Amino acid sequence: MPEKEQSWIRIADHICEIKFGVNNIAVTEAGDKEICIGRFKDALFAFASKCPHAGGLLSEGCINEAGNVVCPVHGYKFNMRTGYNVSGEGYYLKHWPVTIRADGVFVDMGK
User: Fold this and answer.
1) Confidence of residue 2 (pLDDT cuts 50, 70, 90)
2) Residue 105 neighbours by CB distance under 10 Å
3) What is the DSSP letter of 46?
4) Which of 7, 18, 77, 93 has CB atoms 3.0–4.6 Å from 87's, for a disulfide?
5) DSSP E strands, 1-111
6) Which residues, in sequence order, are bridge partners of residue 45?
7) 97 half-sphere exposure, CB direction, 13 A CA radius
8) 53-84 pLDDT, tens per residue?
9) How far is Cα 25 from Cα 70, in angstroms, rounded to an integer?
């Protein structure tokens, strides 16, 4: 099976340009797509801006002590690294790799 083609999109020139809320979640644009960036223990995670269950805005949720993003509507929890629903409902959150390089912060939106 062929590997997914990488398509790194710069979301900021420097990490300090990303405006995280008190919940450690920021909303940004990656190409023509609005996404969230979550910050947990010095790592960044990119994931869909809306919960796959009922469309709750994840930027209005929180990141719990286990590093999961929690939807503000029904409390569904998603692992930011894998996208898997960890509270048992079976939903999957789109997510993308993030890297910080000397020339900026990039998200791999793939093809």
Assistant:
1) low
2) 22
3) E
4) 77
5) 8-12, 25-30, 33-40, 43-48, 62-63, 68-70, 77-79, 95-96, 98-101, 104-108
6) 38
7) 9
8) 999 999 999 999 999 999 999 999 999 999 99
9) 11
